[in-house]
Amino acid sequence: MDIKTASALHRLRLISVPEALSFPALLIFGTLLSWLTDIDYLKMPLGMLHGILFVIYSVFLLDVWNRAKWPFKKAALFFLLSLVPFGGLYGDRLLKREEADSVIAARAREAADA
């Protein structure tokens, strides 16, 4: 894995956790509070924050899909995980494992070249 692919993978990992937490925050604090109380001013900022994070996540996912040459099923899995509350946390776990495997493979390649 080259440095650009590794950095794209790392960017996707960095955005996956905030995106995964923003959706339940929007559901709990935005929607639920507006139904149960008169607190209605949290929906718009939380919705906007989640929307921005989701768009950034989608762009980073497309970048990783393009650079890492992932199969369509793998990219679709990560997209579907972003639609499920807390799904991005599981996606981050998978990305962390893949990132670690690529580092191990790169070190093995360096050792073989030396």
What distinguishing features does this structure have?
114 residues; mainly alpha; elongated
Helix content: over 70%
Mean pLDDT: 87
Strand and helix order: HHHH
Estimated radius of gyration:
17 Å
How many β-strand runs?
0
User: What distance separates the N and C termini?
Assistant: 18 Å
What is the overall silhouette? elongated
- Poorly predicted ranges: none
Q: What is the strand content?
A: under 5%
| Class per helix and strand makeup | mainly alpha
Mind summarizing the main beta sheet?
Answer: none
Question: How many H/I helices?
Answer: 4
Write the layout of secondary structure elements.
Blueprint (H helix, E strand, L loop, with lengths): L2 H34 L6 H26 L3 H12 L3 H27 L1
Describe this structure in words.
The protein is an all-alpha fold and 114 residues long. It has four helices and no strands. α3 runs antiparallel to α4.
Give the gist of this structure.
The chain has 114 residues and is mainly α.
